[in-house]
Structure to design on (317 residues):
């Protein structure tokens, strides 16, 4: 059953392009729904409208059937939110900050204390739990997540929750995100990390320039590519992208990376073609792998934006 419903939401500011352009989506109880797109795509603006901080120019947003555009206080009560920016907890220990957030959201003291302890242990944060020192970026992000998760609302909104978090604790964090959904929350996850999105979300929308370009499960979006395999080439520095092979659709270039959709019967020819390019020093390396959500992403997002985001993913993946 849909907890959050966004219907044809548009946000137009006085100057500049549309921030959101006719976006529709829904998030069910027990679901992790991803908003995937480059910086400036309109994801955070949409979140601001869901939590009642920004009023849409047109369209409707409801939580459990209540129109939160006309009742923004309901949205703020129903949503727990981890913002993209750091949450200041000056003069508080992480444990105090988490417990305070839970109490502000109406949690019973004993429940909040128990839940805060669970989260601190689950995310391996006990080393910092009682410290009043400045936290590193990754630890601060994890504490901010705990503040949103300690007394979760019907909708839990996480805006880039893994920024600066080390790989080990990212895995711990995703387990807690899944647990929030399994306990009945509708989780709305904002990210530009394509690889993590594929592993963690049930459904997603790819957003660029304020529009939802694709919506569905990762499997559905990959199936729409029409090819089960992906040949990836990494060009030598300064090399031009080669013309695509005659047995495959036109390739897509993102920086030094070139993606070619390959049907299963053509794998041998694709490897021979790529090896020939490598022998001629046009290609540094190549690989063949199942089609991924990244392939969907780079075909939907404009090349310059995809270049930036895919390189970011490669750096953290």
């Amino acid at each position: 059953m849909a907890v959050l419903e966004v219907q044809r939401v548009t946000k137009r500011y006085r100057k500049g392009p549309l921030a959101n352009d006719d976006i529709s989506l829904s998030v069910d109880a027990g679901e992790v729904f991803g908003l995937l797109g480059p910086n400036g795509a309109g994801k955070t603006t949409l979140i601001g409208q869901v939590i009642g901080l920004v009023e849409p120019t047109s369209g409707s947003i409801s939580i459990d059937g209540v129109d939160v555009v006309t009742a923004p206080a309901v949205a703020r009560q129903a949503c727990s939110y981890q913002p993209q920016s750091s949450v200041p907890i000056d003069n508080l220990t992480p444990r105090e900050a988490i417990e305070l957030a839970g109490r502000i959201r109406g949690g019973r003291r004993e429940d909040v204390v128990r839940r805060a302890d669970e989260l601190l242990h689950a995310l391996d944060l006990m080393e910092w739990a009682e410290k009043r020192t400045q936290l590193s970026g990754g630890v601060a992000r994890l504490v901010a997540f705990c503040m949103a998760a300690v007394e979760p609302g019907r909708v839990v909104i996480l805006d880039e929750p893994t920024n600066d978090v080390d790989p080990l604790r990212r895995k711990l964090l995703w387990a807690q995100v899944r647990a929030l959904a399994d306990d009945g929350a509708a989780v709305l996850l904002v990210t530009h990390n394509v690889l993590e999105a594929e592993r963690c979300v049930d459904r997603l929308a790819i957003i660029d320039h304020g529009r939802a370009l694709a919506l569905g499960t990762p499997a559905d979006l990959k199936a729409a590519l029409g090819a089960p395999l992906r040949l990836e080439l990494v060009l030598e520095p300064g090399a031009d992208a080669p013309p695509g092979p005659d047995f495959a659709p036109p390739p897509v270039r993102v920086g030094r990376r070139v993606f070619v959709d390959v049907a299963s019967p053509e794998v041998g020819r694709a490897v021979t073609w790529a090896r020939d390019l490598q022998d001629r020093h046009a290609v540094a390396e190549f690989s063949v792998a199942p089609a991924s959500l990244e392939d969907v992403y780079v075909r939907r997002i404009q090349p310059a934006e995809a270049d930036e985001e895919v390189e970011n993913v490669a750096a953290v993946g």
Notes: Residues 306-317 have pLDDT under 50 and may be disordered.
